Amino acid sequence: MERPNKLKVMISGANGFLGKNLIAHLSKTYDVRSVSIRHDNLKFVGDDILKYQPDIFIYNGWYDGNSFSSVNNYEQFNNINIAIELGKVFSQLKDLYFVGVGSFAEYGINKTLISEEDKECANNYYGASKNILKTFTKTLCEVNNFKWLWLRPCYIYGPGDVHSRLIPNTIQACIDNKNLILNSCDSIVDYLYIDDFTSAVNQLLLNKNTGIFNICSGEQYVVKDIINMIKQEFNYHNITFDSSKDRKNSYTNHICGDNSKLQQIGWSAKYNIQSGIKKTINNYEK
C-alpha cells in the first residue's frame, strides 16, 4: 500500500530560535519548507507560496525582533504591511490552515496567571503590532473560510536561544568565568523548555485545533532562583544583583500563563525547569 503524501507546511522565520526548532520537530511528520520574508522579496515569497500550495502556513518570522531594546521601535509596525501583502497571496489559495505566532506581550501588564480569555492590553509596540496581526489574520481566515490558530508563547528557552537573553547569557558567563552584573532579578516569569514548545505546536496541528492557545508551562519562577540554579551547576560566584539596573515605567515584573486550555488537548510538559536547564547547560558545554 502506498504511503499517503505528507501534508505540506511552510514556515517563516526559519533562522530564529523558535523557527529552527519547529522545522526540526515538524519535519518528522510533515513535508516542511522554510521561507524568509523581507520587505524586498515579497514578490518572490508570494510566488513561492502559490507554487508550493501549503496545507499549513506558520507565520513565525518577525522583523526587528523582540529584544527589550527594540520593543518600542516604530519598525515593529512594518510587520503589518508585510502581512497585508502576503494576505493577498493567501487569499488565492484554495484552502489553508493558518498558524500565527503571537506573544504574551499582547496581554500587557498582569499580576495574575494570564488565560486566553483575558483581554489584550499591550503596553509596548511589539505587543500591539502582534495583536494587530492577530486581528488581521483572524479576519482574513474568516473571509476565506480558512482554519486559524494563534499561538502565544511565553518565555521559551533552551539550546540555540539568542545569546543575549538571560539564560544563555548567564550560562556563557559561567563557562567563560566572567563577572556578570544583573538587575535585582525579582521578576516572576513562566519558562518553558524548547522541546516542550515544539511538542505543543505539533499536538495542536495534529488535533487541527483553532483559536488562541497559550504555550507555557503554567509554572511561576522567580528569575533570581533560576540564575542561582545555573550558578550552582557551575559552582560559580561572580554574579552581582544590582537593583539600580531594574527597568522602570511600563515594564511588568509578572509574566505567567495559564495553560489549562493546552492541557485539555492532551499535552503536558516533559521537562521541568531543573531538567531543562541541565540539558541547556550540557549543550553549551559541548
At a glance:
This protein has helices at residues 17-26, 42-52, 78-90, 125-144, 166-176, 194-207, 223-234, 260-263, 273-285, and strands at residues 8-12, 31-35, 56-59, 97-101, 147-153, 155-157, 180-182, 188-189, 191-193, 211-215, 221-222, 239-241, 254-255.
Order of helices and strands: EHEHEHEHEEHEEEHEEHEEHH
Portion of residues in beta strands equals: 15-25%
Q: Percent of residues in helical segments?
A: 25-40%
DSSP helical segment count? 9
CATH architecture field of the largest domain = 3-Layer(aba) Sandwich
The CA-CA distance between the termini, in Å, is 43 Å
- Low-confidence spans: none
Strand tally is 13
Keywords:
UDP-galactose 4-epimerase, domain 1, 38% helix, alpha/beta, 286 residues, Rossmann fold, 9 helices
Descriptive overview:
The chain is α/β, with parallel strands linked by helices. It has two domains: 8-156 and 192-215, Rossmann fold (3-Layer(aba) Sandwich); 158-189 and 219-285, UDP-galactose 4-epimerase, domain 1 (Alpha-Beta Complex). The protein has helices at residues 17-26, 42-52, 78-90, 125-144, 166-176, 194-207, 223-234, 260-263, 273-285; strands at residues 8-12, 31-35, 56-59, 97-101, 147-153, 155-157, 180-182, 188-189, 191-193, 211-215, 221-222, 239-241, 254-255. Strands 2-1-3-4-5-10 form a six-stranded parallel sheet, sandwiched between helices. It is globular and about 60 Å long.
